[in-house]
Design a protein that fits this description.
Blueprint: H1 3-21, H2 56-59, H3 108-118, E1 131-140, E2 158-167, E3 182-190, E4 193-200, H4 213-220, H5 236-244, H6 249-256, E5 270-271, E6 276-279, E7 285-294, H7 303-312, H8 316-326, E8 332-341, E9 347-348, E10 351-352, E11 368-377, H9 382-387, E12 400-401, H10 406-422, H11 479-482, H12 510-517, H13 521-536, H14 541-552, H15 556-566, E13 600-604, H16 611-623, E14 627-632, E15 637-638, E16 641-642, E17 645-646, E18 657-660, H17 671-678, H18 688-699, E19 703-707, H19 709-716, E20 726-729, H20 732-743
Parallel strand pairs: 13-14, 13-18, 14-17, 18-19, 19-20
Antiparallel strand pairs: 1-2, 1-11, 2-3, 3-4, 5-7, 6-7, 6-12, 7-8, 8-11, 9-10, 15-16
Helix pairs in contact: 4-5, 5-14, 6-12, 13-15, 14-15
The chain binds CIS-heme D hydroxychlorin gamma-spirolactone 17R, 18S (HDE).
Function: Decomposes hydrogen peroxide into water and oxygen; serves to protect cells from the toxic effects of hydrogen peroxide.
GO biological process, one term: response to oxidative stress
GO molecular function: catalase activity; heme binding; metal ion binding
């Protein structure tokens, strides 16, 4: 029988089986038994995309505009071939002179396979190398129509997007939970071309002028001699730079706050940082700052959790994002703008809007919601999508323009330049993930990796040979095409060429202090500990002393506390302290309660305990859009329940709250730990790994609930049942309800020792 027929015959049943085989990763999500793990002997169609992924060709431009075949290499196909399409019989044995003889140079397939492999890696991003992304859509409310004519903001317009989150300093394989700034870059595939909003989770930047970007990054990256430490700012070169270069102090205090260690990408704000210029249909311009507000609130890890996760699950944020999407808990943000009059000074209430080390407190200029972002599809191929996406602060659409912020101005050059070396040439916008979802007639030609087969003979303007095409958009064309990009006709003040900043850029401390003054006591405590940790990791005394001087200029209490931790005297301020009004919006403890979408709830199970209660609670957790993780003494099943973590493989830091449904006795494999901890004579009644889990959850102020024998487990672990955030009861369901309420504030903050303001 012909192969094509066989494939067709097999297709139906295989697709069925393949769909069955897609056992969801999320525990508890329904899923039939996996298909047998046997290598097929007949050609069969490949697995369809997972339910949480979209077919790549459906998400990117059709290719009609570039001439590229959109279906190329999206599937595995029936037969193995060479790169030039020749069918192969064998890919497991190199061609040799006899089965024990030397390999022959003529083995083209061997050389092609190995050569391609040798070149699989591309340079990682020089910053933001570690990242993870997802597809989704942006839906405009129409509320920005009066200030911006971009189609992406038209009421009801839905625009496909790809978002990539990242850390800044670490390399591609570094841990997700390092203390760092996070990138939040969004590509909007609008019907007027691509718009990239390349944002961060911190609204200010380290430097005021892009010319210093290599300096701050060289200082933050590992030391050049031994290339350590990886993905950390806790080292001499970083603090050397930021203590000398005090305009970095505002950004740095954000890094030292809980914002530097987010709980999840889904729980971060995003900020465009710079002031942008919007243009409306009448040509009137306004200045705006972009803000992403997460539906789930802004929440962070504790420092101990972040450090532990670096080892327990370095992919914690990546996993969290993909799992949430797969389980249907789609991450969501609102896009908002602070709007300012486009006055010649570009100053609002005394705040220089062109200084990227300054915010405008939300209390002075409210963030006005203009649309909603939903991430609902995971990537199909990490490299093709997350790695190859190329953002650029200059990818603008008609109606969205830039200002003269000197940091933004440098970015307008840097992003294209970096893609040339990272993606190997000027045609990276033809890659599927970068292609606009609109027609492209750019008249750019040739170059490395040209995918298009351009027709026509006249890639120049003006021409007659291609009928004058393509035409510049003008009044004689359809309304759609007349909405061409028009640079806002902004007056540039007559001036002298200089290398200097405006005087207003010299204030490095007033807003840094405002951030400090806006924090609740718990948050202040965390900031003190973060500085003490980071400076404590520095070797050079002079660097610590210089940073203490900067802290003295922010706040005497902050400085004194950190100085005590370092064993150094606290210096006096060298600048007058300015008390700006605190901005409550800066604290993470304001607002709420927050939804629990995609939150992880651990359930400690004893095989001899209340398994019916566990089943009921598990179902209720799933129904609430959260994820139950059963922790048990062994893998496989306990009663009828699948075990997701054993006491050996699971750690407390993976969950947001824990429920204790029994009091498991020490298992045989816990014996060494037990003996070490308690001594041979003193046999604990509770498995010591459960004790550790509960102790850690308690220390990290997580909600803890217990019922039945679980209450005994709390006692055995030394957890007071009347402590804040600890709930006990006679039935699991009622305990869960209270635990859910506690999770609405992210943590039982009172337990962290400092009262909530
Ligand atoms: Fe970037 N930045 N940046 N940056 N940036 C890059 O572009 C740069 C800045 C941001 O997920 C690079 O494709 C300069 C501010 C994000 O792919 C590079 C300056 C903000 C990402 C680059 C800045 C950002 C980047 C590295 C100072 C927040 C990750 C790889 C003038 C508003 C994008 C790449 C992704 C990536 C240059 C400052 C955000 C080298 C020169 C301010 C989220 O082009």
């Amino acid at each position: 029988k012909d192969v094509a027929d066989k494939v067709a015959d097999a297709a139906e049943s295989v697709v069925e089986k393949a769909t069955d085989a897609l056992t969801p990763q999320i525990p508890g999500a329904p899923g039939p038994a996996p298909a047998p793990l046997k290598e097929p002997t007949e050609p069969v169609p490949p697995l369809p995309p997972k339910p949480d992924q979209a077919a790549p060709q459906a998400r990117t431009a059709t290719g009609a505009d570039t001439g590229a075949d959109p279906h190329v290499r999206t599937q595995q196909g029936a037969h193995l071939t060479t790169a030039t399409g020749v069918k192969l019989r064998d890919t497991d044995h190199s061609l040799k002179a006899g089965s024990r003889g030397p390999t022959l140079l003529q083995d083209h397939h061997l050389r092609e396979k190995i050569t391609h492999f040798d070149h699989e890696r591309i340079p990682e991003r020089v910053v933001h190398a570690r990242g993870s992304g997802a597809h989704g859509y942006f839906e405009a409310y129409g509320t920005a129509e009066s200030i911006c004519h971009a189609a992406v903001f038209e009421k009801g317009e839905t625009t496909p997007v790809f978002v990539r989150f990242s850390t800044v300093l670490g390399n591609r394989g570094s841990m997700d939970t390092a203390r760092d700034t996070r990138g939040f870059a969004t590509k909007f595939y609008t019907r007027e071309g691509n718009w990239d909003l390349v944002a961060n989770n911190i609204p200010v930047f380290f430097i005021q002028d892009g010319i210093k970007f290599p300096d701050i990054i060289h200082a933050g990256k590992p030391h050049p001699d031994r290339e350590i430490p990886q993905a950390q700012s806790a080292h001499d070169t970083f603090w050397d730079f930021v203590s000398l270069h005090t305009e970095a102090q505002h950004h740095t205090i954000w890094n030292m706050s809980d914002r530097g260690i987010p709980r999840s990408y889904r729980m971060m704000e995003g900020f465009g940082v710079h002031t942008f210029r919007l243009v409306n249909a009448e040509g009137v311009t306004s200045l705006v700052k972009f803000h992403w507000k997460p539906k789930l609130g802004v929440h962070s890890l504790t420092w101990e959790e972040a450090q532990m996760l670096g080892g327990v699950d370095p992919d914690f944020h990546r996993r969290d994002l993909a799992d949430a999407i797969e389980s249907g808990a789609f991450p969501e943000w609102e896009l908002g703008v602070q709007v300012f009059e486009d006055n010649p000074e570009q100053v609002f209430e005394g705040i220089d809007l062109l200084d990227p080390t300054k915010i405008v407190p939300e209390e002075l200029a409210p963030v006005q919601p203009i649309g909603r972002l939903v991430l609902n599809k995971n990537t199909t191929n990490f490299f093709a999508e997350t790695e190859q996406i190329a953002f650029h602060a200059g990818h603008l659409v008609p109606g969205i323009d830039v200002t003269d912020d000197p940091l933004l101005q440098t970015r307008l050059f840097s992003y294209v330049d970096t893609q040339l070396s990272r993606l190997g040439g000027p045609n990276y916008n033809q890659l599927p993930i970068n292609r606009p979802h609109t027609e492209v007639n750019d008249m750019f030609r040739d170059g490395f990796h040209q995918h298009a087969v351009h027709s026509g003979v006249a890639p120049y303007k003006p021409n007659t040979l291609d009928g004058g095409c393509p035409f510049a958009a003008g009044a004689d064309l359809s309304e759609e095409q007349t909405k061409a990009f028009t640079d806002a006709a902004v007056r540039v003040a007559e001036s002298t060429k200089v290398r200097e900043n405006p005087v207003s850029y010299d204030d490095h401390y007033s807003q840094t202090r405002q951030f400090w003054l806006s924090m609740s006591p718990v948050e202040k405590e965390h900031i003190i500990r973060a500085y003490t940790f980071e400076l404590g990791k520095c070797y050079e005394q002079a660097i610590k002393e210089r940073q203490l001087q900067a802290l003295a200029n922010i706040d005497p209490v902050l400085c004194a506390e950190v100085a005590t931790g370092l064993g150094l005297p606290a210096p006096e301020p060298t600048v007058p302290l300015t008390d700006l009004a605190p901005s409550p919006a800066l604290s993470q403890l304001t607002g709420g309660p927050w939804p629990g979408d995609g939150r992880m709830v651990g359930i400690v199970v004893d095989p001899d305990g209340d398994l019916d209660g566990v089943t009921e609670v598990r179902t209720a957790i799933l129904a609430a859009g959260m994820v139950p993780l059963i922790f048990a003494p062994h893998g496989g099943k306990v009663g009828g329940l699948d075990v997701q973590r054993t006491f050996a493989t699971g750690r407390s830091v993976e969950v947001d709250a824990v429920l204790v449904a029994g009091s498991p006795v020490p298992a045989p494999d816990a014996r060494p730990l037990r003996e070490e901890k308690a001594g041979a004579a003193d046999t604990p009644t509770l498995d010591p790994r459960v004790t550790m889990l509960l102790e850690e959850c308690f220390r990290h102020a997580k909600a803890i609930g217990a019922w039945g024998a679980g209450v005994d487990a709390l006692a055995a672990a030394g957890i007071a049942t009347d402590a804040p955030g600890v709930v006990t009861g006679s039935a699991g369901a009622e305990v869960l309800t209270e635990v859910q309420t506690l999770m609405g504030t992210h943590r039982a903050w009172e337990r962290l020792g400092a009262p909530v303001a």
